[in-house]
Design goal:
It is built from 21 helices and 5 strands. Bound molecules: heme C (9 copies).
Length: 497
Amino acid sequence: MTRKTLKYVLSIVAILLVALTAGVVVASTKTKTELPEYLGSTSCLGCHADKFENWSGSLHATFTQEVKSLAELPGDISTLTPELRAELEKVDVIFHGGRLMSQDLVTGEYKYLGVQYDEATQTYKAFDRKGVSMDATCGGCHAGQRDPVTGLHVEAGIGCESCHGPGKEHILGRGAVDKIWNSVDPTKSCASCHSGYNQAPGASRFPIGYRPGMTLEEVGFVANTFKADGAPVAMHHKGAVPQWQASAHASAALTLNANDHASDRCYECHSTEYVLAEEAGQPFSVKDHPVNDGVTCVTCHDPHGSNVPGQLRKPAEELCASCHTGELGDKETFTAGSTLHHPQAEMLAGKGAIGVTATVGAHTEITCIECHMTGMNHQMKVLKPADVIGTTTKDTCTTCHSNSSPESRDVYLSMWQDSTVGKLAALKADIDVVDAALKANANALTAEVKAKYAAAKTNYTMVDADASKGAHNFEYATKILAAAKKDISAAKAALGK
Ligand code: HEC
Ligand code: HEC
Ligand code: HEC
Ligand code: HEC
Ligand code: HEC
Ligand code: HEC
Ligand code: HEC
Ligand code: HEC
Ligand code: HEC
């Protein structure tokens, strides 16, 4: 038997099992029906074993978990009172390591038991919300799909079908690709749970009637608001999707689509579909396959889980630096005459400028996300002290410099940025003068002066394109601009300007 056939047989066995179980449950509650639409993640195992295995260890799969036997429960259950023990015997599901629930076989809801586990003390105690439905408040985001006919949860945690939609037709079609939702677009794959609560009075916190592939608008769900200054909403449900939508990452492919000079290679850092195709070693051309996706969630996160915390594809430092780089690579310095783009990684590290000693700055050891994702905000925006003075919001710098006031932090940051912006403007004016002279007479400078001038221009673009206006490594930026000034001034003098 080939591997493919084996996979197929395995999956059919899985379907039959699911169908049988479903049949039994259905018969005991409502009228007997067809194979359910949602089959649960185990039905995918046979054909997508790798995805299944990676996903099983992810928080999506484990946050809300089925309890098959009491032995799987945490802590010591032998000391429970008979009443609490009787409650515990009914357990079907454990939520976030503590809340215990049983599934109501008539309505399908997960309802809290009168007992819960306290992680802090590692003991069981009575719970006063016995009988309250978890589905009404949290289940739409924290539990697996419910079968539309029976109302029963197909699985406890967030499974394949929570993101890919119902699997029945895909499986009956033996892997028909047009019968399963598969998209890198967060607004249609992640938004139903990662947009925060709907805070309208009386409304459901999570979208009802939603399935992957739909937008929230289609089900009339009003996503959580977040503060446009990038400050996180004051609750754990921060809404990564709306924050991301407000970031430049969301429009990264559109930027290129609007750019006449963009070639395929440019999409390497601007499009998720491109990044994933390249990783999989598949050829990809935007001419055959136009994209408007941008840097979406799955550029950075692997929804099927990974060994890196936060389901990241790479450790955060490597991740940001893989695109926010002037592509210095193993070289010691950039090539004189080149125009640099986004050399944030090199600037922070304090290396790459031509003829300038490498310089470790005060923040070289700090990662990008420590300043750009304060409170896990996905807008990637630094909250500058000046933005928050007079408000209760904490600026980015507070995480580490809590002993100073925003006013004093603002003084430093403004000093760094004003000084850098001023020097950049002055150099730009000088560069324009020299370039104009060289345009009129290409031989106006000796080869030696010309070479130094080319290096100085590259150095200038390093500070300019870093775009932090000196904030990433003020000491290094200052040295680079001083070196550039010397050589550009020499060129100007040689021209008699
Ligand atoms: C949190 C949402 C989420 C969950 C859970 C999830 N997926 Fe995906 N899956 C995605 C997204 C988004 C993509 C497209 C991006 C990509 O390829 O990584 C995708 C892509 C895929 C692909 C096609 C791409 C490839 O590499 O072949 C397969 C097959 C797949 N998923 C199967 C599964 C299976 C099986 C499970 C459950 C074991 C699962 N997924 C769970 C979101 C999810
Ligand atoms: C059905 C709701 C739902 C969908 C759809 C969903 N998530 Fe989640 N996600 C959650 C919840 C709830 C958590 C918190 C842990 C848990 O309950 O699983 C979470 C946690 C995460 C985490 C944190 C994991 C960790 O280890 O810290 C990441 C990253 C994430 N989701 C990304 C995504 C992406 C990307 C998508 C879309 C491709 C997506 N999720 C789709 C509900 C969802
Ligand atoms: C609109 C969808 C949604 C609803 C409704 C929802 N959650 Fe969450 N929850 C999430 C997502 C997504 C995460 C993942 C982390 C994040 O985005 O902050 C999460 C994370 C969590 C966490 C882990 C993070 C932490 O702060 O420790 C807990 C605990 C939690 N939720 C509890 C609940 C409870 C209890 C309810 C019901 C009262 C609930 N949630 C309702 C979507 C939701
Ligand atoms: C009978 C085997 C089989 C089963 C069971 C199966 N798939 Fe697939 N699936 C395939 C095949 C074959 C493809 C074609 C792409 C490939 O070669 O990986 C595919 C492709 C996919 C894709 C990518 C679609 C695209 O647009 O390229 C996703 C997503 C996916 N499956 C999810 C699932 C989920 C979720 C389940 C469980 C509900 C599931 N599959 C169960 C065989 C199966
Ligand atoms: C796949 C490549 C890629 C990765 C990975 C990436 N970025 Fe970006 N980033 C971009 C692109 C491309 C843009 C510009 C998009 C545009 O303007 O169209 C951008 C823009 C930004 C901006 C905003 C600039 C602005 O003007 O608003 C910040 C800040 C940023 N990224 C920070 C980060 C951080 C922090 C990380 C790591 C967590 C990261 N990026 C990871 C490609 C990437
Ligand atoms: C190595 C990754 C990478 C590649 C390759 C890349 N970009 Fe970008 N691009 C970025 C990042 C990161 C940003 C955000 C920079 C910032 O805000 O400082 C960006 C921003 C931009 C912007 C908007 C900001 C600006 O500088 O005006 C444009 C336009 C752009 N890129 C065009 C292109 C073109 C055209 C190409 C191909 C010639 C290309 N990019 C190739 C990573 C890349
Ligand atoms: C440019 C890269 C990037 C993009 C794009 C991105 N994330 Fe993240 N995300 C990160 C990083 C880095 C972390 C921090 C992980 C850590 O340190 O544990 C993170 C953390 C998270 C967490 C855990 C937050 C918590 O409170 O623990 C969730 C949930 C999440 N992201 C969801 C999403 C969703 C949904 C999207 C798309 C709307 C998305 N991310 C887009 C880089 C990214
Ligand atoms: C010590 C904090 C800090 C660290 C670490 C840091 N940044 Fe910044 N970054 C800033 C500040 C401050 C600005 C200027 C913001 C402004 O003027 O609005 C900035 C500006 C930027 C910009 C210009 C667009 C914008 O948002 O203004 C990009 C892009 C950027 N940083 C990316 C990165 C990347 C990538 C890394 C990691 C290699 C990184 N940063 C590390 C603080 C930091
Ligand atoms: C993740 C931690 C962290 C964050 C966030 C952070 N810093 Fe720092 N900062 C440090 C460390 C570590 C040092 C070096 C050790 C020292 O001198 O205390 C430092 C040093 C400094 C110094 C003194 C060194 C010098 O060059 O004069 C200033 C000023 C400073 N930071 C300002 C800021 C500002 C402004 C922000 C916000 C944009 C910020 N920092 C964000 C950790 C951080």
